[in-house]
Specification:
This protein has three domains: 3-131 and 303-324, NAD(P)-binding Rossmann-like Domain (Rossmann fold); 138-297, Dihydrodipicolinate Reductase, domain 2 (2-Layer Sandwich); 348-432, ACT domain (Alpha-Beta Plaits), CATH 3.30.70. Helix content is 35%, strand content 28%. The protein has helices at residues 12-22, 61-65, 83-92, 102-119, 136-142, 157-169, 173-182, 191-194, 197-211, 230-238, 303-324, 366-376, 405-422, and strands at 3-8, 34-40, 57-58, 72-75, 96-99, 123-124, 147-154, 221-222, 241-252, 255-269, 281-289, 292-299, 343-344, 351-360, 381-390, 393-400, 403-404, 424-432. The structure holds NADPH dihydro-nicotinamide-adenine-dinucleotide phosphate, ligand LTNE7NMQ and sodium ion (NA). NADPH dihydro-nicotinamide-adenine-dinucleotide phosphate binds at residues 9-14, 40-43, 46, 61, 76-78, 82, 100-101, 127, 131, 184-185, 187-188, 301-302, 306. It holds the Pfam family NAD_binding_3. Its EC number is 1.1.1.3. L-homoserine binds at residue 187. The active site is at 202 (proton donor).
């Protein structure tokens, strides 16, 4: 019995998916039962890396999601619309859905899962987080026995590639971004990668699975990597840190049902397991009880790895259809039935270490003044170093002990008001893990 897949999108991931579905030799025998039924694209004239029967290609994507011959719709066009409407139409037509689209799931998961549950179909999304890394299924199934306390991930391949190239080769930000686009890692609009939005979409999905509640995407604090300079990378190295864009979701201490969910560039101690994750690789560190720590590592973007995750979901659905038939109840381990939203704590409540770099006139007492501003707001300093000069201004770098974000911000305000008199400027502020 053959199951027919309708592919929406035939770009980087769509091409990789079609390549696996057409070359089944020595892969899972269930692939013999899966056929590409139709392929939807924006332009019929574009040259394609894989030659498909031209009759399979269409620009009428609605006709695919409503085609009675299609069993599984695989959404690989990306973005919010028409992806959202096409997924809803596919569900209404009784199709199971596989998607790599974290943006649409993070924002419309509520609506899409409600529709899917009502129609009795699956929406599977392994490719949406961590590319080829199996992380969605482990959170749904293998780690189901655990009480998860924290998830910390490098979940965007493009920004990890950029930060690695800047750190290891001293490469220029814009040039590396162009490379990441050419390699097929970046989103259609790479702002989503660079500004941390893609990582925020992904941590929303992971937090929802790990903590069992829906996540308001808008409540996630999100800072990207644009402000990470070569100077900060170099100071971080000197101090024994590596800068990574981290996505973090954790339970708030003493507040059972409140989460902290945030994305920001972070100085990681070199000994931390995530500090050595380089290039397009991603990793997700999950902490829970009783498992302790478990880390998932692998290629976070790119044609083949992402297609590997997409096809694993197609296989999962084909396996269910083959063994149980079309009209069976949804497996609760694979479907999503969250009803409530998790409360998200405001960023001011987060307790973390900070790194700050100041540029100041090299005169006696400047470090003392900084110390006074920090002391007034209970910010205690772990280290203060003055190594270099920039345009005749001394560069002072401080690393704090753990402090509440609100207190640190107040101390910076104090430094700012003081700097009006005495030429101190705040060149950069980053969090330290
Ligand atoms: N690239 C990666 O490494 C990863 C991507 N993803 C996700 O996978 C999805 C696809 O990404 P990717 O393959 O890189 O994207 P691409 O831009 O390479 O491909 C998008 C495809 O969708 C088609 N398409 C886009 N908009 C429309 C439309 N309105 N109507 C019809 N067809 C349309 C395009 O058609 P045409 O070819 O004619 O232009 C193209 O074939 C996204 O959600 C992305 O976030 C997830 C993990 C990793
Ligand atoms: N643009 C994304 C693609 C995978 O999700 C990334 O760079 O990680
Ligand atoms: Na994945």
């Amino acid at each position: 019995m053959a199951f027919k897949v309708g592919l929406l999108g035939f770009g980087t991931v769509g091409t990789g998916t079609a390549a696996i579905l057409r070359d089944r030799d020595r892969r899972n025998p269930l692939l013999q039962d899966i056929e590409i039924g139709r392929v939807g694209v924006k332009s019929l004239d574009k040259p394609r890396a894989i030659a498909l029967d031209p009759d399979l290609l269409t620009t009428d994507l609605e006709s695919i999601v409503t085609d009675p011959d299609i069993d599984i719709v695989v959404e690989l066009i990306g973005g919010l619309e028409p992806a959202r409407s096409l997924i809803l139409k596919a569900i209404a037509a009784g199709k199971h859905v596989v998607t790599a689209n974290k943006a649409v799931i993070a924002r419309y998961g509520d609506e899409l899962y409600a529709a899917a549950n009502k129609a009795g179909v699956y929406i599977l999304l392994e490719a949406s987080v961590g590319g080829g890394i199996p992380i969605i299924k482990p959170l749904k199934e293998s780690l189901g026995a655990n009480r998860i306390s924290q998830i910390t991930g490098i979940v965007n391949g493009t920004t990890n590639y950029i930060l690695t190239q800047m750190t290891e080769e001293g490469a220029d930000f814009d040039a590396v971004l162009t490379e990441a686009q050419q390699l097929g890692y970046a989103e259609a609009d790479p702002t989503a990668d660079v500004d941390g939005l893609d990582a925020a979409d992904k941590i929303a999905i992971l937090a929802s699975l790990a903590f069992g509640g829906r996540i308001d995407r808008e409540a996630i604090y999100c800072e990207g990597i644009r402000q990470v300079s070569a100077e900060d990378i170099s100071y971080a190295e000197k101090l024994g840190f590596t800068i990574k864009l981290l996505a973090i979701a954790q339970k708030t201490e003493n507040r059972d049902n409140t989460l902290q969910v945030r994305v920001h560039p972070t100085l990681l101690p070199n000994a931390h397991p995530l500090a050595s994750i380089n290039g397009v690789y991603n990793a997700v560190l999950v902490e829970g009880e009783p498992i302790g720590q478990v880390m998932f590592f692998g290629p976070g973007a790119g044609e083949g790895p992402t297609a590997s995750a997409v096809v694993s979901d197609i296989l999962a659905i084909a396996g269910i259809l083959k063994s149980a038939g079309k009209n069976t109840a949804l497996n609760p381990l694979l479907s999503c039935s969250h009803q409530d939203y998790s409360a998200i704590a405001p960023m001011e409540e987060v307790v973390t270490r900070f790194y700050a770099r100041f540029l100041c006139g090299d005169r006696p007492g400047v470090i003392g003044h900084l110390g006074t501003c920090f002391g007034k707001h209970e910010v205690s300093l772990e280290s203060v170093v003055q190594i270099g000069f920039q345009d005749k201004l001394a560069e002072i770098v401080v690393v704090t002990h753990d402090v509440q974000e609100k207190n640190f911000r107040q101390a910076l305000e104090e430094v700012r008001s003081f700097s009006a008199l005495d030429s101190i400027s705040i060149a950069s502020v980053l969090r330290v893990f």
